[in-house]
Amino acid sequence: MERIPILKMGDFLLVTIQVDMYDRLAMTLQDDLTNRITQTHAHGVLIDISALDIVDSFIGRVLGNIAKISQVMDAQTVVVGMQPAVAITLVELGLSLTGIRTALNVEKGMALLRLPPARQGRTLPGGGTPSSLNETTNQVIATQWRADDDAED
């Protein structure tokens, strides 16, 4: 059976998805990650999805479940490298990916994971949290892309 490699980098686990995700592989990844968090006592999980062109509702829910499971096990989750089309699809499907923080690339994702816990849950000026800002930013980007597509028609 095909498996997605999970690398340990200090206190973090790095998952780079380089193949098309299908349901069974997503469930295997969820189980493998849960086991690796337990074995390594990792404090963070970084999932690079830059190679994914498509994320359906099931894969989106699995990513959300991974984040929730990781959080229960005292590890934070950051998803990096999301393609604009993937962000648009997730917003259109109504998946908020609660509990998942996002970053543009691995470097920025690792920086998010390295933040002290007190700063991870901080409130931004005017209210809101960094994760709510990410969700709002993703929605704005999706809306902008849709407007650009409509303008081309």
Care to describe what's here?
By secondary structure, the protein is α/β, with parallel strands linked by helices. The protein is 52% helix and 14% strand. It has six helices and five strands; from the N terminus they run E-E-H-E-H-E-H-E-H-H-H. It has helices at 23-40, 57-72, 84-92, 106-114, 117-120, 130-152; strands spanning 6-9, 12-16, 44-48, 76-80, 101-103. Strands 1-2-3-4-5 form a five-stranded mixed beta sheet. Helix 3 crosses helix 6 (130-152). The radius of gyration is 16 Å and the shape is globular.
> Poorly predicted ranges (pLDDT <50, ≥5 residues)?
118-133, 135-147
Q: From the alpha-carbon coordinates, what is the Rg to the nearest angstrom? A: 16 Å
Main sheet: strands, sense, barrel: 5 strands, mixed
The shape, in one word, is globular
Describe the structure using short key phrases.
single chain, 153 residues, alpha/beta, five-stranded mixed β-sheet, 6 helices, 52% helix, 14% strand
